[in-house]
Amino acid sequence: MPTACRSGPRAGAAASRTGPKSRWRWWCRTRGRQILGLDLEPVMPRDLAQQLAASLMPEARAGGQGMPAEIEITRVFSAKETLFKALYPQVRAIKEFSAARAIWNGDALSLALTEPWAEALPEGLVFAIEQRVAAGVVVSLLSGIAPDAPST
Protein backbone atom coordinates (compact mmCIF):
# COMPACT_ATOMS: atom_id res chain seq x y z
CA MET A 1 0.00 0.00 0.00
CA PRO A 2 1.52 3.38 -0.98
CA THR A 3 2.49 5.64 1.88
CA ALA A 4 3.69 8.69 -0.05
CA CYS A 5 2.50 9.58 -3.53
CA ARG A 6 3.06 12.68 -5.56
CA SER A 7 1.34 13.80 -8.70
CA GLY A 8 1.58 17.13 -10.39
CA PRO A 9 3.19 19.24 -13.05
CA ARG A 10 6.91 18.91 -13.53
CA ALA A 11 8.94 21.82 -12.18
CA GLY A 12 9.18 24.54 -14.81
CA ALA A 13 6.51 22.97 -17.04
CA ALA A 14 3.01 24.07 -17.80
CA ALA A 15 0.31 22.12 -15.97
CA SER A 16 -0.81 20.33 -19.12
CA ARG A 17 -0.96 16.60 -19.82
CA THR A 18 -0.97 17.07 -23.57
CA GLY A 19 1.69 17.75 -26.16
CA PRO A 20 4.65 15.85 -27.55
CA LYS A 21 6.61 16.12 -24.31
CA SER A 22 5.62 14.74 -20.94
CA ARG A 23 4.88 17.54 -18.51
CA TRP A 24 3.29 15.46 -15.78
CA ARG A 25 5.05 13.33 -13.22
CA TRP A 26 3.89 10.69 -10.83
CA TRP A 27 5.78 8.59 -8.34
CA CYS A 28 5.11 6.64 -5.20
CA ARG A 29 7.19 5.21 -2.45
CA THR A 30 5.60 2.30 -0.66
CA ARG A 31 6.20 0.71 2.70
CA GLY A 32 9.64 -0.73 3.15
CA ARG A 33 12.04 -0.14 0.30
CA GLN A 34 9.68 -0.81 -2.58
CA ILE A 35 9.81 1.67 -5.43
CA LEU A 36 7.44 2.49 -8.25
CA GLY A 37 7.93 4.62 -11.32
CA LEU A 38 5.28 5.02 -14.01
CA ASP A 39 5.33 7.00 -17.24
CA LEU A 40 2.96 7.36 -20.19
CA GLU A 41 4.19 9.04 -23.35
CA PRO A 42 2.53 9.56 -26.70
CA VAL A 43 4.77 8.21 -29.45
CA MET A 44 6.87 11.16 -30.60
CA PRO A 45 6.57 12.52 -34.12
CA ARG A 46 9.45 11.21 -36.24
CA ASP A 47 11.19 14.61 -36.57
CA LEU A 48 11.15 15.23 -32.80
CA ALA A 49 12.37 11.70 -32.12
CA GLN A 50 15.30 12.20 -34.51
CA GLN A 51 16.20 15.49 -32.79
CA LEU A 52 16.26 13.83 -29.36
CA ALA A 53 17.90 10.54 -30.37
CA ALA A 54 21.53 11.57 -29.76
CA SER A 55 20.86 12.89 -26.25
CA LEU A 56 18.54 10.04 -25.23
CA MET A 57 20.54 7.11 -26.56
CA PRO A 58 24.04 8.09 -27.66
CA GLU A 59 25.09 4.45 -27.17
CA ALA A 60 22.93 3.17 -30.05
CA ARG A 61 21.74 4.03 -33.53
CA ALA A 62 18.08 5.04 -33.62
CA GLY A 63 15.97 2.40 -35.35
CA GLY A 64 18.54 -0.32 -34.71
CA GLN A 65 16.12 -2.49 -32.73
CA GLY A 66 13.93 -3.46 -35.67
CA MET A 67 11.09 -1.09 -34.79
CA PRO A 68 10.28 2.37 -36.13
CA ALA A 69 12.80 4.89 -34.78
CA GLU A 70 10.09 7.08 -33.24
CA ILE A 71 8.78 4.15 -31.17
CA GLU A 72 12.26 3.08 -30.11
CA ILE A 73 13.25 6.61 -29.08
CA THR A 74 9.96 7.19 -27.25
CA ARG A 75 10.45 3.88 -25.42
CA VAL A 76 13.92 4.95 -24.24
CA PHE A 77 12.62 8.38 -23.23
CA SER A 78 9.73 6.86 -21.29
CA ALA A 79 11.97 4.25 -19.66
CA LYS A 80 14.38 6.92 -18.43
CA GLU A 81 11.51 9.04 -17.11
CA THR A 82 10.22 5.97 -15.27
CA LEU A 83 13.62 5.25 -13.72
CA PHE A 84 14.06 8.84 -12.61
CA LYS A 85 10.59 8.92 -11.05
CA ALA A 86 11.18 5.63 -9.24
CA LEU A 87 14.53 6.67 -7.77
CA TYR A 88 13.83 10.33 -7.04
CA PRO A 89 12.44 9.68 -3.53
CA GLN A 90 15.72 7.98 -2.65
CA VAL A 91 18.22 10.34 -4.31
CA ARG A 92 16.27 13.63 -4.18
CA ALA A 93 18.07 14.82 -7.31
CA ILE A 94 17.04 15.43 -10.90
CA LYS A 95 19.33 13.57 -13.29
CA GLU A 96 20.22 14.18 -16.92
CA PHE A 97 19.28 11.59 -19.55
CA SER A 98 22.97 10.67 -19.78
CA ALA A 99 22.78 9.29 -16.21
CA ALA A 100 21.38 5.99 -17.57
CA ARG A 101 21.93 4.05 -20.79
CA ALA A 102 19.61 1.74 -22.66
CA ILE A 103 20.30 -2.00 -22.85
CA TRP A 104 18.19 -3.95 -25.34
CA ASN A 105 17.66 -7.68 -25.14
CA GLY A 106 15.39 -8.39 -28.08
CA ASP A 107 12.29 -6.29 -27.42
CA ALA A 108 13.01 -5.98 -23.67
CA LEU A 109 14.56 -2.76 -22.39
CA SER A 110 16.68 -2.28 -19.28
CA LEU A 111 18.59 0.76 -18.08
CA ALA A 112 22.04 0.83 -16.50
CA LEU A 113 23.19 3.73 -14.35
CA THR A 114 26.16 5.48 -15.99
CA GLU A 115 27.20 7.23 -12.79
CA PRO A 116 26.68 6.63 -9.08
CA TRP A 117 23.34 8.07 -7.97
CA ALA A 118 23.81 7.27 -4.28
CA GLU A 119 25.92 4.91 -2.19
CA ALA A 120 23.38 2.15 -2.72
CA LEU A 121 22.91 3.01 -6.43
CA PRO A 122 26.34 2.53 -8.01
CA GLU A 123 27.33 3.01 -11.63
CA GLY A 124 26.40 -0.08 -13.65
CA LEU A 125 23.34 -1.01 -11.59
CA VAL A 126 20.69 -2.34 -14.03
CA PHE A 127 16.92 -1.89 -13.83
CA ALA A 128 14.43 -3.81 -16.00
CA ILE A 129 11.64 -1.62 -17.35
CA GLU A 130 8.27 -3.15 -18.27
CA GLN A 131 6.72 -1.51 -21.32
CA ARG A 132 3.67 -1.70 -23.54
CA VAL A 133 3.02 0.20 -26.73
CA ALA A 134 -0.63 0.56 -27.71
CA ALA A 135 -2.86 3.15 -29.34
CA GLY A 136 0.09 5.44 -30.02
CA VAL A 137 1.19 5.52 -26.36
CA VAL A 138 4.19 4.02 -24.56
CA VAL A 139 3.49 2.90 -20.98
CA SER A 140 6.55 2.20 -18.81
CA LEU A 141 6.69 0.73 -15.33
CA LEU A 142 9.50 0.09 -12.88
CA SER A 143 8.62 -1.59 -9.62
CA GLY A 144 10.74 -3.46 -7.17
CA ILE A 145 12.94 -3.12 -4.14
CA ALA A 146 15.34 -0.19 -3.83
CA PRO A 147 18.73 -1.14 -2.46
CA ASP A 148 19.54 0.34 0.94
CA ALA A 149 22.76 2.13 1.68
CA PRO A 150 25.11 0.04 3.81
CA SER A 151 24.80 0.84 7.50
CA THR A 152 27.80 2.50 9.11
3D architecture notes:
By secondary structure, this protein is of the alpha+beta class. The chain has 2 helices and 7 strands; from the N terminus they run E-E-E-H-H-E-E-E-E. A 7-stranded antiparallel sheet has the order 1-2-3-7-6-5-4, with helices on one face. Helix 1 crosses helix 2. The radius of gyration is 15 Å and the shape is globular. The chain starts with a strand and ends in a 7-residue tail after the last strand. Residues 1-32 have low confidence and may be disordered.
Name its key features.
152 residues, alpha+beta, Ribosomal Protein L22, Chain A, seven-stranded antiparallel sheet, 7 strands, 22% helix, globular, disordered N terminus
